[in-house]
Design brief:
- The chain has 120 residues and is mainly α.
- The protein contains 4 helices and no strands.
- Helix 2 packs antiparallel against helix 3.
Length: 120
Amino acid sequence: MRDLMASEIRRFANTCTWSLQGWRAAWASEKSLRQWTVVNLLSAGLAFTLDLSTGERALILALGVLVLAAELFNTAIEEAVDLASPGPNPRAGKAKDCGSAGVALAALAGGIAWAVILIG
């Protein structure tokens, strides 16, 4: 049992390490990730400043994290597509555009949540 626990702890530590490496790599190369991070910090600050319910605040914070996750997925798609198809290719362009659309929809969801919360 102890070996199983030690193995799972090592696996979790590796997962955390790889995730942090991914964040750092994306942070260094992706201006849009840095921009969405700033937007999320401002949004979170506003969510904690306004008189919101716990559920409303949780929704705003969770959707902000979702936008960052979508941006990271989009970065992964773009990197993989560029590796597989370095030259112009309509299918490569479609894959990249769909990744970008995913980020836009996640951001739109956050905007809609803010609008509904503020308008009532």
